[in-house]
Amino acid sequence: MDNSNKLNKNFFEKIEKELIFNFNEDKFIKLLNQYPKEQSKILNNIANSIEQGIVLIEKDKFIFVNNSFCNLIGYTKNQLTHMKIWKVINSNYKEIVIKHKELRKKKIKSMYEIKIIDINKKDIPVLITGIPVCTSKNPDLFFGLITDLRNQEHIEKLLLKHSTYDDLTGVYNYKSGFDILERVFKYSKRYKKKFTLCFMDTDNLKKINDKFGHSTGDTFLKDFINVIQDSIRESDFIIRVGGDEFLLVLTDANLDTTQLVFERIQKNLNLFNKTSTKYKLSFSYGFSEFNNQSIKEMIIEADNNMYKMKKQKRFK
């Protein structure tokens, strides 16, 4: 096996394990779009390991369904493949489905509740997370994540996810992120450990929004976060604090460790930018190492250092 094939195999093993244990629909869709030749493998290995129903729909027909959706609705994969979706949707909800279909044509992710009909003609209340997978070859391709609302555990997990994580990027939202940061702070203070806060602000997001539209701006942010996530350690985490401002928390890390992490980040950014044709990822950042100051003081220091870098870039 040559190095490129080995790298490809290792990549898919890593991403499969990550998505099977912590499914993220946006990362899953990105995988489908990035690796069209591997779609069958991705769908079978990952989608069939997920408890929630997963469907791919094209021109109002099912072209893929996972095991969980079949178990939910009672039909086999052969019965569902190429079946019109309207056969399993309660007619009272047709208008809602059409409305959200129009949103997907505009590449907008949406969530809505409807009732579907199982093989025994019984209604099942479900929550649909609909994400467009529009490409030039498949302008009408749509991914759906189906949550059975009869299952309280699924509902609680979903509510927890949306109260904990930022919907766009998948990182911690402000409230939950700062709750965890507070714990890191108390732990580090008690056991005299180092940790570093890194204030990050993407460059040129406004220009990208103005030139290509906000949908591309959203993709830019997601690509940026994916690169950061792939570069940091499992113990590190990211908080979204504003539109394009993020706080990276490096646990048990002094400035030397932080520098090594950011070298990895820069290396991965360079790799991304070599293949990206629409935009280049870049950002400004500033550090603050914990030395018994407050979290507020650390954020102010990191923010000031970030703006120094941003100012230097303007004058280059």
From TrEMBL:
Gene Ontology CC: one annotated term: plasma membrane
Molecular-function GO terms, alphabetical: diguanylate cyclase activity
PROSITE patterns named in the record: GGDEF
Domain of life assignment: Bacteria
Domain GGDEF: residue ranges: 193-316
InterPro entries reported in the protein's UniProt record: Diguanylate_Cyclase, GGDEF_dom, Nucleotide_cyclase, PAS, PAS-like_dom_sf, Rev_trsase/Diguanyl_cyclase
GO biological process per UniProt: cell adhesion involved in single-species biofilm formation; negative regulation of bacterial-type flagellum-dependent cell motility
Protein's name in the database: GGDEF domain-containing protein
Lineage: Bacteria, Thermotogati, Thermotogota, Thermotogae, Petrotogales
